Every structure is written in C-alpha cells, then in structure tokens.
Amino acid sequence: MIYKTFNAMHFTQILKSFKNYVIVFSLILIVPHVSSAFPIFAQQAYENPREATGKIVCANCHLAQKPVSIDLPKSILPSSVFEATVQIPYDTNLKQVLGNGNKGAMNLGAIVILPEGFKLAPLEMLSQELREKIKGIYIQPYSIKYSNILVVGPISSNSKQNITFPVLSPNPSQDKNVHFIKYPIYVGANRGRGQIYPNGDKSNNNIYFSSHSGKIFDIQRLEKGEFQVFIKTNTGDEVIEKIPLGLELIIKEGQTVTIDQPLTKDPNIGGFGQGETEIVLQNPNRIKFLIAFFFTVVLAQIFFVLKKKQFEKVQASQMNF
C-alpha cells in the first residue's frame, strides 16, 4: 500500500515536471517569433541597443526606413523633470499583415538613449498634466545596467502618434561623472512588424522571391491559406516555393520566372527610423550670473541716461545765465 502511494506521488511529480518542461519549450519556440516587432524585445538579444557604428539594433529586423523626430528642451537644470516627445508619423488608415495572415492596425514602439546619469522620472515627481500624457503607456529602462536607455511598446497606433518620455536630469553635485556640458540624445521608433525574426527567419511581412529560374506549372492554396508554387527549372528539376499566410501573389500558372523575381506584392507598410539631437545640462549659477550681468547693464544704462539729463539741465541753466 505504501509502495503504491509512493509510486502515485512520484508519478504526479514527474507529470508536473513534464508540464513545466513543455511550457518552457513552448516559450522558447514562440518567443522568437513574437519578439520581432518592437524595440522592447531587443533586450532579449542585445546588451546594448546602439552599435559602435551608431545604428540602433531595431534596424536589424525592421528593414524599411521611416521618419522619426524628437522634441525636447534645448537646456535643462539639474534634478529637474522634462519631457522628451518622440513623434512617429504614419497613415492611420493603413492596415498591416499580421502573423496569422489577417489585416490589423499597426502598433508602435520607441527607444530613447539618454546620456549617462539621465533616467526615467519617478511618478511622484510628475505633474498632473504629464501624468495624463503618459497614461496607459508603460515605459521602462532597457536594463538594470542601462537605466539611461528607455523603451516602450508595443502600443496601439490608433491612440498615439506621439510618445512622451518623462526624464529626470542628473545633478553634478551628487554625481561626479556628470558635468555641465552639451549631451547627445539618440532616438529610434518603429511602426508595424519587422521583416526578420531575431533567429534570422523571414516573417510574412516580406516580398517573397523565386529561388530558381523556370516555368510555374502549378499553384496550390493550402487549407490554412498558404500557397505552394511549383516551378520546373531550366535544368528539369522541380522546386516548391512556400508562400506564408496573408501575402498576395503576382504570378500565375504557366508563367516563366527568373531567379530573384518577386512572387508576391510587398505587404510592408511600416518601418524604423532613428535620429539624434542635443541637450545642455545648464549650471544654475551661470544663469544667476547672467541675470546679474544683464541687471548691471540695465542699471548702468539708467544711470547714464539720468546723468545725461542732469548734464543737459546744467548746460541749459548756464546758457540762460
């Protein structure tokens, strides 16, 4: 009886362990294909999202180029909160091809690479107006090591074309690695899905090309909606080109194709863009001295005018005498 109970318990533990392994294995298979669309997923593959050449790694999966810009103050004071607004223009009427082949709205993602010492402003330091701007948007540091790099996404493109990042500036009196100088800030943003998965596979958000020259002798639509294009090559071999879900063919049966000839329309309507700007960490003492200087100049001008008036009165009285 004890032996049977032990076997039952042992079998239950084995079953639970097997379920855990299945879950982990499933995540390993699924995550690379899900994690192809937004800057936040670059955390899985890159320690630093900006390469030595200056390229932001999001461009490795999002091959199309699109514009992006960032709006922020020209200068800021130490330990102050300011807004860095990333502007991502796109056509809200366009629909992209999803992984399941259906059409859907584009999602957005963005990354802001701040100078060292700058970081995401804590919620308690934000004004009510700024809290409203970031409502529903989850912004987080790229990693523990790079708290100066902020990422967000995916977020619905139906609600946002501008993404505001609340940033806290450092204080040189508290951090000796920070100085009152001009700093560069880098930004990247994408709309829509990428063309390449992190594991190197192509997504269905691509043009598919013929890998051989020859004649198409059959086109089959499979049960789930994919296509198989059968080509008889010039050497007499038969090859099959597999076209994934959601793509529109631009070839037909009996047509002759050449190597690298497009078989589908380009489904991609999104892309990635990056840019850079500068910001000055301003010393408040400089501003005080500048104000004092202007005040001194204005005061000197006032005294000069008064002295001139006094001199003119003396001259006038002497002439009358």
How is this structure best described in words?
- With 321 residues, the chain is α+β, with helices and mostly antiparallel strands.
- It has 3 domains: 1-34; 37-200 and 268-282, Cytochrome f large domain (Immunoglobulin-like, Sandwich), CATH 2.60.40.830; 214-257, RNA polymerase II/Efflux pump adaptor protein, barrel-sandwich hybrid domain (OB fold (Dihydrolipoamide Acetyltransferase, E2P), Beta Barrel), CATH 2.40.50.100.
- The protein is 24% helix and 27% strand.
- It is elongated and about 120 Å long.
List the helices and strands and how they pair.
Blueprint: H1 2-34, E1 69-71, E2 75-76, E3 81-87, E4 96-97, E5 103-104, E6 107-113, E7 119-120, H2 128-133, E8 139-141, E9 149-156, E10 162-168, E11 182-191, E12 214-221, E13 227-233, E14 238-243, E15 256-257, E16 271-281, H3 284-320
Parallel strand pairs: 2-16
Antiparallel strand pairs: 1-3, 3-10, 4-5, 6-9, 6-11, 7-10, 8-9, 11-16, 12-13, 12-15, 13-14
